[in-house]
Amino acid sequence: MKGYAFITGASAGFGEAIAETLANEGYNLIIAARRTERLEALKSRLNHLSIDVQIVTMDVRNEAEVTTAVASLAENVQNHIEILVNNAGLAVGRGPIDQGISDDWERMIDTNVKGLLYVTKAVVPFLKMQKHGHIVNIASIAGKEVYPGGNVYCASKHAVDALSRSMRIDLVPYGIKVTNIAPGAAETEFSMVRFKGDEQTAKSVYEGYKPLQAEDIADTVHYCANLPEHVCINSVVMTCTSQANSFYLYK
Ligand code: NDP
Ligand code: 8X3
Fold first, then answer.
1. Rounded CA gap, 42 and 15, in Å?
2. Cα(235)–Cα(209) distance, rounded to whole angstroms?
3. Is any ligand 2 atom within 6 A of the Cβ of residue 138?
4. Terminal C-alpha separation, the chain
5. Once rounded to an integer, what is the mean pLDDT over residues 2-21?
6. Which residues are catalytic?
């Protein structure tokens, strides 16, 4: 029997697709996010599979909430976590640095960087005990190259990239794999969140080309997680065919 995949940000986009893909491959799931009703709907959709699905409602920015949520999982769940997918994240706003809004900056840094740290710190002791496990960090192409107006989001994803490489060193003695996945533009709720509900602007991000779909990222996570024990993919940069780098999209 497969162990548990702990997926943050499982209420939408990549996280939801990763949860569905891994569930179909027989993984049990711990699905986390703030919107419990979305997690419950996902769990119901997976009802036909003979897997266990644990729902965790938490805001990754709140360390106490994260620690309590992980500590509250049953022992047989904690001790069988095989994969942690640090996926919860967001961009808020896009524009020149001097026009940035401090609250947007804080939301991005607190979620993308500090949230990922809190979840990792809470889960790693269980992976260490097993001397086995895999952490998949969902970074971004924005963590490889900056682009106009991307400043703080790009900085937060550069931090994720650096943390993935650091974790790889810290955790290698325990047989724990770390994979950094850096996708380019993908059509999810990401742009609706970034542009604060401005549907027209959000839609325009994906017009004139075929962007990545959440399922593409899920397939990549599944591929990386199902390699032989002695093989670890450290880093993946993936874009749709029309995107050459973080600022050149052919439309
Ligand atoms: P979505 O907006 O579709 O999903 C984001 C998920 O993150 C939701 O499940 C949301 O759940 C969760 N989340 C956000 N903030 C918090 C929080 N404070 N606490 C807990 N959960 C939170 O976006 P994507 O699926 O596109 O994004 C997933 C990841 O991929 C992010 O890290 C993003 O930066 C990254 N990424 C996205 C790309 C894209 O073009 N879409 C490309 C490259 C990387 P809820 O609101 O219920 O809490
Ligand atoms: C999301 C992709 O290009 O909007 O990480 O930064 S991009």
1. 11
2. 25
3. no
4. 45
5. 98
6. 153
pLDDT for residue 69? 98
Helical H segments across the chain, by residue range: 13-24, 36-45, 63-71, 75-78, 102-108, 116-130, 151-171, 190-194, 199-204, 214-225
Q: Give the integer Cα–Cα distance in Å for 61 and 217.
A: 24
Compute the distance from residue 193 Cα to the ligand 1 centre, in Å. Answer: 9
Pocket of ligand 1 (CB under 6 A): 8-15, 33-35, 38, 59-61, 87-90, 111, 115, 138, 140, 183, 185-186, 188-190, 193
pLDDT of the residue at 73 = 98
- Nearest alpha carbon, ligand 1 atom 25: 13
Which protein residue's CA is at the shortest distance from atom 5 of ligand 2? 140
The sign of the torsion formed by the CA atoms of 235, 195, 61, 78 equals: negative
Exposed, middle or buried, 67 (CB in 10 Å: 0-12/13-18/19+)?
A: middle
Which one of the ligands is nearest to 149 CA?
Answer: 2
State the average pLDDT for the chain.
98
Question: What number is the average pLDDT over the span 33-58?
Answer: 98
Q: How far is it, in rounded angstroms, from Cα 249 to Cα 208?
A: 10
- pLDDT, tens digit, for every residue of 101-160? 999 999 999 999 999 999 999 999 999 999 999 999 999 999 999 999 999 999 999 999
Span from the CA of 26 to the centroid of ligand 1 (angstroms): 24
Atom of ligand 1 nearest to the CA of 185: 40
Task: Tell me: pLDDT of 59 over 80.
Answer: yes
Sign of CA dihedral 160, 166, 168, 171: negative
* Residue of minimum CA distance from atom 4 in ligand 2: 185
